[in-house]
Structures are given as structure tokens and as C-alpha cells.
């Protein structure tokens, strides 16, 4: 997944994720941006904006960014305590990427907070990566259990993967499958041609 | 970009096998053949009982028709692999094995098991080696960062197996690193 790739469909989809903006001034006739029925955007209104739209709004000084909940201190603490028990998919919603949203947030806020964010995400990513790959490798043995998943089980972890990690899981899974097929491959060469 | 995703990320194990089969190997032919030109070069002449050097694909073809014996490479023996396995389990790095040892050993074990000694032991040694090396790859994953990862002596098949998700992980890590921290970007 390339975050910056102009042609990357993943990047385009990621830019569609919403961040909350708090408007500093009244903007007439733009109420539809917030998706509501209001005609104007009032002062101090908090609206969910897609990231691609938020750039222009924030840089023009019309609104302030409300720091998104998926990257709040609470999440930071939870990740510090045990990176593998945090359900990233639950933080950003299904089909969205926590890392991509974080990456775009880094671009918006810049400076030392961006650095902090980068460190948090890098640590979380490396700590969770092992588990992702391990589970991909042993997925065939574990099988896809159905039913309720208790916290701390491999299944709960899998459900908590965000989109970026999901893609990695699939890559590792397919690679393992292809290798295994080849290693176990029938003795097809033994037949005289 | 119409290739299926599974083929886009890296080459497949059968393709690696095909590549490995270009390597030359000694055979003892049971038939006579003049020097013959193939697309990849001219091989032969085959004059039993003299040894000849031919590509593995040709050796396999002749072998399946019972027209040659394959002389196993010097590393495909119980003693050599046993030594490597000990090295593998006692030391940190990967032991030095031929770059395409996995492909070649599998092809030879499949086709020419009667030309090898102790095939069962060889198989289990190769399996142990693979598992020991896989564990090290896994450990390497924990040291991954955005810029580089050095795993010397890794073999073609192993590289190929870990390539898709290692590359992807590193590209994600690159994205998570602030641009000013990446030199020459």
C-alpha cells in the first residue's frame, strides 16, 4: 500500500476517512459539507470532513483540527501496555486504515507531535507485525473458527487488524501457501515424458 | 497490471525451480548422443561411461527415461548437510549453502532418489535446515526498519517466500517515518 501514490486506489480510499474540524467562523451556504440539512456552517460547529477536503479548510485557517480519537493519549497508553491487544480496526472503523490515517495526520500537524505520532505508530507496527506474520503462517492449522471471540485469542487479534495489516496478513498467507504447495508438491517430474 | 495479485508480488516457487534447472550438473549417460545445440547452448557429446555436464532440466528428462545416472552435487550428502545443520542450530547467522539448494535438492530427491544415498535422512535434514532457517527469518522480522535488513546467505526460495510481506512492511515503515528523517528521499 503506497500512501502517497497518486494512482493508488488505497491512498484515494484512505483520503476519504473523516477527521473532525472545528470551524472558527461562519461560512454561509456551505452547510451541505457537513452532510446535514443546515444551510450555513455556524461558528464553532464541529463537522466531520474527509481528509482530502480538510487540507484546504485547515490550511486556509477556516477551522481547527480536533485531534482524532483513534490517536488519543488513551490509545497511546494502551499501545504502550500491550500493542497486540488493541483493536485498531475498531478505532477507525471497518475497511479503514489506522496507519494511513495517522500518516495523513502527521502531514497535517507537523512538528514534534507528528514525530511522537510517528514513533507511536512505528512501535505499534513492529510489535504487531510478528504476530500478524505468525498467524498468517499458522492460519491453516488454527483454521477459521466461527462464533464469539474472547479477548486475547488469535481470532480476536485478527479481527482487530486494520486494513494495512490485513493486507500484510494476506501477503504472508499467500506466500506461505504457495511455498507449501511447492514443497509438498507431488512427484510430477517422475513420470516419463 | 492484469496479472493476478499473487503473481505481481514475486516470482512463484515453480518459476524458481525452472531457473534453478538451468544449472549444470554431472551425469553418467547410458546413451550416446553427439554434441547438440539447444537454445541455451550446446551440450554433449554423451559417451558412456564418461561423465558429461548438462543442465538439470536435461538430466531430469534423461533420468525419467532411464537414460542416465545423475551424479549428486558434493553438497547433497548426509555429512555435508549434517555439518550445515549443526552450524545452523549453534550459530546466529545463516550457514552458507548453495543459493538454489532448496530447488535443486527437491528436484533431485524427486527424480533421482536412487542415485542418492540415505534419501530419507537427507529429506529430514533438509526439512530441519529449512525450519531452523525459517525461525531465523522470523527473528529477522522483528529487527526490520524502513531502510534496510541484512540477512546474508539466505537462499533464493527463502528470499522469495518472505519477500512480499517484508517489502510491504518496509514500505509501510517508510511511510510512518517523518520525511525529514529519511536521508536522500
Keywords:
heterodimer, A: 193 residues, mainly alpha, Methane Monooxygenase Hydroxylase, Chain G, domain 1, B: 185 residues, Ribosomal Protein L9, domain 1, 2 domains, 3-stranded antiparallel β-sheet, 5 strands, 49% helix, 10% strand, globular, chromosome partition (chain B), DNA replication (chain B), GINS_bundle-like_dom_sf (chain B)
How is the biggest beta sheet of chain A arranged?
3 strands, antiparallel
CATH-defined topology of the largest domain in chain B = Methane Monooxygenase Hydroxylase, Chain G, domain 1
Which value, in Å, is the CA radius of gyration of chain B?
20 Å
Order of helices and strands of chain A: HEEHEHHHHHHH
Overall geometric form of chain A: elongated
The CA-CA distance between the termini of chain B, in Å, is 26 Å
Number of domains of chain B: 2
Describe the main β-sheet of chain B briefly: 3 strands, antiparallel
Total DSSP E strands of chain B = 5
What is the level 1 CATH name of the largest domain in chain B? Mainly Alpha
Kindly report the greatest chain-chain contact and the residue count on each side. Answer: A-B, 39 and 38 residues
Give an account of the 3D structure:
- The complex is a heterodimer of chains A (193) and B (185).
- Chain A has helices spanning 9-14, 51-59, 73-81, 88-92, 98-109, 111-137, 139-142, 154-159, 163-183; strands at residues 18-23, 46-50, 63-66.
- Chain A has 193 residues and is mainly alpha-helical.
- Chain A has a three-stranded antiparallel β-sheet with strand order 2-1-3.
- The model of chain A has no long low-confidence stretch (mean pLDDT 81).
- Chain B is mainly α.
- Chain B has two domains: 22-71, 3-Layer(aba) Sandwich (Ribosomal Protein L9, domain 1); 73-173, Methane Monooxygenase Hydroxylase, Chain G, domain 1, CATH 1.20.58.
- Chain B has helices at 5-9, 13-20, 56-64, 78-90, 101-111, 119-142, 156-176; strands spanning 24-29, 36-38, 41-43, 52-55, 68-70.
- In chain B, the strands form two sheets. In chain B, strands 4-1-5 form a three-stranded antiparallel β-sheet. A two-stranded antiparallel sheet of chain B has the order 2-3.
- In chain B, strand 2 and strand 3 form a beta hairpin.
- The longest helix of chain B is centred in the C-terminal third of the chain and has 24 residues, at 119-142.
- The radius of gyration of chain B is 20 Å and the shape is globular.
- The model of chain B has no long low-confidence stretch (mean pLDDT 88).
- Chain A: Residues 74-183 form the GINS subunit domain.
- Chain A: Component of the GINS complex.
- Chain A: Its main location: nucleus.
